[in-house]
Amino acid sequence: MNVTVLLFADLRVAAGRSELRLPLPEAATVRTAAEHLERELGERRLQGAMVAVNERYATPSTALAEGDVVAFLPPVSGG
Amino acid sequence: MSGPAAAAGHRFEVVRDAIDVAELLREASAPAWGAVASFLGSVRSPNRGAQVEHIDYEGYEAMMRAEMARLADEVGSGRDLGRCLIVHRLGRLRPGEISLAVVVASPHRADALLACQELVEGLKARLPVWKFEVGEAGGAYVAGRADAGPTL
Fold it and tell me: Least CB-CB distance to B142: which of A60, A71, A77?
C-alpha cells in the first residue's frame, strides 16, 4: 500500500521536505511506517514524536490503510 | 465541519492575518447569553530572560481545525454553551500580537469561564502547532509538549 507522510517543524527541516509518498507492506502499522520512513530519510529522528493518522492522534500500533495520511508530529507548542 | 459543534454555530479557524477580536465578541453576543468569557494569547517578550524578535508559527491546519472541533465537543458536553469561537494565527508574529483567541458564550458564567479555561489548556496540549522563536542570539524551536498521544 501507499500512504502520504507529512512532516513538520524540525522533522520537516531535517528531511528537506514536508510531504512524501511512502510505499509500505500490507498490514502495516504506524510503527512500520516510522521504521520505513527512518530508512528512507537515513536517520533516526522520529523518537519522541507523536503521530496522527487522517488528522487524528494515533498510536504506534494503529493499523494503516491505502491512502492514509500519516503525520509525524514533534512535541507541540500551540497558543 | 460536521457534528454538533458545527450545528451550534461555533467557529474553528486558522488564519494568517491579525485576529479581529471585536468581531469575535460581536459573534458571541446574544440576549440569551448572559456570560461571555474570553482568552487572548499573545507573543511574549522577554521569554525566559531573552528578548524575542518574532516567532514563526507553523501548523498542521486541517488537523488544527479538527482538534478544535473535537475539543469543543468534549468541553461542551454536559454544559450549556451558546457559542464557542476559536481562532489560531500562524505565520510570523511580533511580540504583543495575538496568536490565539478563545471566546465562549453561555447563559451562565460558570459554564463560560470553566469551558474557556478547559479549551485553552486542551488547545495548548493538543493543537499541532510549532513555534520557531527568533531573538538576538538566533533562532530555535520552542520546546513542546507530547501529552496528546503516545510517542514513538
Answer: A77
Half-sphere exposure for A17 (CA within 13 Å, toward CB): 9
Find the domain containing B20 and state its range: 4-135
Q: Which domain holds residue A44?
A: 2-73
Can you give B77-132 as a three-state secondary structure string? CCCCCCEEEEEEECEEECCCCEEEEEEEEECCHHHHHHHHHHHHHHHHHHCCEEEE
**pLDDT, mean of residues B3-18:** 80
Residues 97-116 of B with CB under 8 A from A: 99-100
Please report residues of A whose CB lies closer than 8 A to that of B145: 75-77
Of B91, B118, B103, residue with least CA distance to B14? B91
Q: State how far residue A15 is from chain B, nearest Cα, in angstroms.
A: 16
Query: How sure is the predictor about A41, in pLDDT bands with cuts at 50, 70 and 90?
Result: confident
pLDDT confidence of residue B1: 41
Number of domains, chain A: 1
pLDDT tens digits, one per residue of A20-36: 999 999 999 999 999 99
The pLDDT value given to residue B4: 54
- Give residues 31 to 60 of A whose Cβ lies within 8 Å of B: 31, 34, 46-52, 55-60
Contact with chain A for residue B144, Cβ under 8 A: yes
B30-70 pLDDT per residue, tens = 999 999 999 999 999 999 889 999 999 999 999 999 999 99
Residue B26 domain-assigned? yes
